[in-house]
Amino acid sequence: MADKDDGFQFGPTFEVTEHIKSTFDERGYIVVRNVFGDDEISKLKEALEKDDGIKQHAYEIGDGGGGKVKLCIWSLPGQDITGMVARCDKIAGTMEKLFGAELYHYSCKLMMKEAKTGGQHTWHQDYGYWYKDGCLFSDMGTVFIAVDESNKTNGCLQVIPGSHKCGRIEHVIVGGQTGADTERVKQVQNKLGLEYVEMKPGDALFFHSNLLHKSNANSSETRRWAFLVAYNSVDNKPYNTTNPHFIYEPLKKVPNDAVLKCSVSDISGKDFWNPRNDKTIVYDDEL
Q1: Quick one: which of 276, 231, 204 has its CA closest to 20?
Q2: Interatomic CA distance for residues 193 and 49, integer angstroms
Q3: Which of 29, 53, 128, 273 has the most crowded Cβ, counting Cβ within 10 A?
Q4: pLDDT score of 7
Q5: Beta pairing class for 204-208 and 140-146
């Protein structure tokens, strides 16, 4: 197992040890390398790249600096390979052990930071969004799975270690996105520092919903796609029941081999989000 800066190595005997749990609690995140093998990532990538698949539901929002952020979000995991990834034990089970609580699938997201045009993501906490959804507590988190290599040149994630301990920071609209108060972020960064999270395809970043993170625009010749799965504590379901996208279903975990065994291509029933109904972004049809 590597030191905390290089992350932890996934393998057949991987377990969330007390050391891994304490690292997550202290830093607000952990990186686990090689969670998915080449065959699994190839199969996931093939599904995500289908013209008549998930990416047909993608939309763009401005980043406040002339770039575009391209993404799509859905509420239910489904039975296809993306659903198997979201529900497999090495992702969902690991997240439950890190939080020490029963979780359920909150949403999935495909982030498509295209070569040369992929915009930046401003500093934010995921709970800055989810607080506005009506979740009372920050007992929530995200798993960022690298589909492509993610590095400094194509806009990898940057995080402020330990910033989840600051609690929720006020968020406002920045460009087309919801972002954290810039002066507050500056002071937190001055105190805690910053780390770039460079990842290979198949690596996974598990992080707390109050961890401050951002990513720069992609000015490189290579794209940077990522698949993200968000989880919420079962006892933290949003009180805002008027939003049709906040759907609670018990998390039905599947074995890790379900990813390669999955033969379902149907993506119906995932409940893809309409950006016009999302109050945490500013959507422009002309982008």
Answers
A1: 204
A2: 36
A3: 29
A4: 94
A5: antiparallel
- Closest residue by Cα to residue 159 from 249, 274, 30: 30
Interatomic CA distance for residues 88 and 103, integer angstroms? 13
Of 245 and 1, which is predicted with more confidence?
Answer: 245
Q: Are 246 and 75 in contact (CB under 8 A)?
A: yes
Closest CA to 21 of 141, 135, 146: 141
Total residues found in the chain within this entry: 287
How many C-beta atoms surround the C-beta of residue 255 within 10 A?
13
Distance CA(153)–CA(217), nearest Å, equals 9
Higher pLDDT, 279 or 77: 77
The pLDDT tens digits for 224-237 are 999 999 999 999 99
The residue extents of the domains of the chain are 17-277
Residues 6+ apart with CB under 8 A from 78: 264, 266, 267, 268, 269, 270
176 — pLDDT class (breaks 50, 70, 90): low
From 64, 72, 165, 79, select the one nearest 123 (Cα to Cα). Answer: 64
- Helix residue ranges, H only, 134-211: 182-192
pLDDT in tens, 30-76: 999 999 999 999 999 999 999 999 999 998 877 666 777 889 999 99
Residues 157, 173: Cα–Cα separation, whole Å: 20
If you search the block for the tokens 């859905």, which residue do you land on? 74
Q: Which CATH architecture has domain 17-277?
A: Sandwich (2.60)
Query: Would you state the pLDDT for residue 240?
Result: 82
- The DSSP output letter for 272 is B
d(Cα 162, Cα 27) in Å, to the nearest integer?
4
Helical (H) or strand (E) element with 161: none
